[in-house]
Design brief:
Length: about 400
């Protein structure tokens, strides 16, 4: 693999930097830089998506024929790196990184023509309805039922842990349309408008104080059959295809590199970097991060050739989330007493963050959000399929165990 950037790649990096200089306002930059969640404030994220879309960069890995930028693997990496360095708020992944690729892979021509442009503009904001109270790691026994009535499916049941259901206007759901010997059969992939009569959303507040998770109740919700993606009863194929993108469609390393650099900055300010034990921990994290970066470049290159992330998605999910959690531990240590104090101004996890507007040394303000980031990041090894399950997948598919 050739890791050297070509002249064309360098020109692209300059182009991205120029765009970020022009379009990333101070407010948007603050929303991206001072995040205590994996998600930026909703409004800021949407505003940034609109600006990216105007430049044709909202969906960097979608094919051009569907309105994507179809960037090369190196260009995607450069793009992610420049965005992370500049502090751009990340986009919510459920539409662009999950539902979009699933529709491109399995949707009908009409569905692609209708939904894809609306995902790009943000007019449709999606959430993901896979998990249920008794179906998480093992999703196949899911129960939310959908019964055919003329040209509609009538849906009754519940979905849980649904990120952004409180702001989304669409949900892609796995519903039970049939009972067979294998629970994976009889599942259908269905697109449901959140304003349908019979949909109720209840909040779930996380330990970090963040409210973006929810439980949704569906009470005889009527959904047109035209909203089925793929075949009735065969939704498991679409669901698994989508999960590969959820776990491996993007790179963790660019954002983590920026975070580790900031931890170094805080530790330098507080003098902790002079402690050889702490310096050794930072160096070890840097080595893990560089290994992850090379792995991601290799995996994304292979995925670009094969068209989908495959098993490497599971490896990247484990390495990326566990390193991210380790960085939150280092950040807490670097923050020292600044991370201990109760700082309500840093308390809007996942929402507008007031920290950039409070006085103080930059590194110390950064330190103040470390505890919330620590709490929030515990979820990383659970969502998108827990890391234990990813290890099972690798053991089975790669090691033949
Ligand atoms: C912050 C957050 C956001 C989420 N967002 C969404 C969302 O938007 N949409 C959605 O559909 N879901 C979402 N989820 C749900 C998430 O996908 C599930 O929590 C996850 O799949 C685990 O399922 P569970 O919670 O039912 O735990 P369980 O499946 O009950 O697992 C409990 C524990 O047992 C372990 N375990 C289970 N089975 C095995 C096994 N076979 N081998 C080894 N260990 C095992 C698990 O690793 C875990 O540690 C979210 C979860 C979180 C925490």
């Amino acid at each position: 693999m050739d890791l050297a950037w070509s002249d064309e790649d360098r020109r692209f990096a300059q182009e991205v930097r120029a765009f970020l200089d022009a379009e990333l306002t101070d407010e948007l930059r603050a929303a991206g830089q001072w995040m205590t969640s994996v998600y930026a404030d909703h409004e800021a994220g949407m505003e940034w998506q609109r600006r990216l879309h105007a430049r044709g960069w909202a969906a960097i890995n979608w094919p051009r024929e569907h309105g994507g930028a179809q960037l090369s693997v190196t260009q995607r990496f450069i793009f992610a790196r420049e965005c992370a360095l500049a502090g751009a708020p990340p986009l919510s992944p459920m539409g662009i990184a999950m539902c979009g690729p699933a529709l491109i892979g399995h949707g009908s021509a009409e569905q692609k023509a209708h939904y894809l442009p609306r995902i790009l503009t943000g007019e449709h904001f999606w959430c993901q309805g896979y998990s249920e109270p008794h179906a998480g790691s093992d999703l196949a026994p899911l129960k939310m039922k959908a019964v055919r009535d003329g040209d509609h499916l009538v849906c009754t049941g519940t979905k849980i842990w649904t990120t952004h259901a409180n702001v989304a206007n669409w949900i892609f759901c796995l519903v039970r349309t049939g009972q067979y010997d294998r629970p994976q059969l009889g599942i259908t992939f269905l697109l449901i408008p959140m304003d349908s009569p019979g949909v109720t959303v209840r909040p779930i507040v996380m330990t970090s104080g963040e409210h973006i998770q929810n439980q949704i109740f569906f009470d005889e919700v009527r959904v047109p059959l035209a909203n089925v993606v793929g075949e009735i009863d065969q939704g498991w194929t679409v669901a698994k295809y989508l999960l590969e993108f959820e776990r491996g469609g993007s790179a963790y390393a660019p954002g983590l590199q920026v975070r580790l650099a900031r931890i170094r900055e805080i530790a330098r300010e507080s003098g902790l970097l002079d402690d050889p034990l702490f310096a050794a921990q930072v160096a070890a994290a840097q080595v893990r991060l560089d290994v992850l970066e090379v792995y991601e470049l290799r995996a994304l290159t292979a995925a670009a050739r094969g068209g989908r992330p495959g098993l490497s998605g599971s490896v990247m999910k484990i390495l990326g989330t566990e390193l991210s959690q380790h960085l939150t531990e280092l950040a807490l240590e670097a923050a020292g007493p600044y991370g201990l104090a109760f700082q309500p101004e840093a308390g809007a996890a996942g929402g507008p963050n007031l920290i950039p507007h409070t006085p103080g040394v930059r590194g110390m303000r950064e330190a103040a959000i470390a505890p919330l980031k620590y709490l929030n990041d515990r979820a990383g090894s659970i969502y998108a399929g827990s890391n234990e399950i990813q290890r099972n997948i690798i053991a089975k598919a790669q090691l033949g165990l």
